[in-house]
Design brief:
CATH superfamily: MetI-like
Strand order of the largest sheet: 1-2
Largest sheet: 2 strands, antiparallel
CATH class: Mainly Alpha
Radius of gyration: 23 Å
Shape: globular
Distance between the termini: 27 Å
Number of strands: 2
CATH architecture: Orthogonal Bundle
Length: 289
């Protein structure tokens, strides 16, 4: 039963590792690869586009991770306080639903909601409230100042509900006797949350953060479907940078150069996970590895 999974992993995860050697070659199209040592890496670090994409990847990924984790914890705590079981299940279902929408559908929905015309819900409301004048609508997804905050909001809306599943499972495992003992000692709701609930969630939060750090450099789909030429400098990340260098560069793609970018991306992700795991060992006395 394990063999199909093993074969799949070997073909799609481990076999491509041998392609790393092309990071040290100039490999354009169907031409024979030419060994050039570290010239691809020298070119990479001299490219302003790469430096901007690297910075955007770290900033967008880490801020998104922290925001999603914070909101997932807050929502879990709020859901945990709901007494009515029916209302609690209904609220959980509504919060989970956005996760199952593809990013293409999500981008299409928010493109309509944030449309820079009176047909857009947000601009229409701002105009009716007197905040904007008619004809001065904001193109949120094409505005350099607005794109990043809007990106964070969309990600929180889509992914927070799924994150609450893990924290709700942890909350359900906390012994009710702890809360009963705290009530007898005169502890209020917020004191119970501060001294029982949050400490019980701490280990789960740290483990989730460490595991998600492994994916911070793999940001692609959520950015790709929301970006456009007007905000490319603010939204270009390493994965989209590799994509454009390969398919939209206007010249024969250099697979050696894009392989070098991908190798650096993977190395940085690995370093982040190891660093976070080491910090966890110092703070908690144990890591997940």
């Amino acid at each position: 039963m394990f063999m199909p999974v093993l074969v799949f992993a070997a073909i799609f995860y481990y076999a491509p590792i041998f392609g790393i050697r092309y990071a040290f070659y100039e490999y354009k199209g169907i031409k024979e690869p030419v060994f050039i040592a570290f010239k691809n890496f020298e070119k990479m670090f001299s490219m302003q586009g790469f430096r901007a994409a690297f910075r955007n990847t770290l900033v967008l990924s880490i801020v998104k991770l922290l925001l999603n984790t914070f909101m997932a914890v807050v929502l879990s705590l709020l859901l945990n306080e709901i007494i009515s079981l029916k209302f609690k299940k209904a609220a959980q279902t509504i919060i989970y639903l956005p996760h199952f929408m593809s990013w293409v559908v999500t981008a299409s929905v928010f493109a309509l909601i944030l449309s820079p015309t009176q047909a857009g819900l947000v601009n229409s409301l701002l105009t009716r409230m007197g905040i904007l004048e008619r004809g001065a609508e904001i193109y949120f997804l094409g505005n350099k100042s607005w794109w990043t905050p809007v990106y964070y909001i969309i990600n929180v809306w889509k992914d927070t509900g799924w994150g609450t599943i893990i924290y709700m499972a942890t909350l359900s495992s906390i012994s009710p006797e702890l809360y009963e003992a705290a009530s007898i000692d005169g502890a209020g709701r917020f004191q119970k949350m501060g001294y029982i609930t949050l400490p019980s969630l701490a280990n789960t939060i740290i483990v989730v953060l460490i595991l998600n750090l492994a994916k911070v450099m793999n940001l692609f789909e959520s950015v790709f479907v929301l970006q456009n030429d007007a905000v490319l400098r603010q939204s270009d990340v390493l994965q989209t940078y590799i994509y454009y260098q390969t398919f939209n560069s206007g010249a024969l793609p250099n697979y050696g150069y894009t392989t070098a970018v991908g190798l650096i991306k993977s190395m940085v992700g690995c370093i982040l996970v190891i660093a976070c795991n080491s910090a966890s060992k110092k703070v908690r006395g144990s890591g997940i590895v």
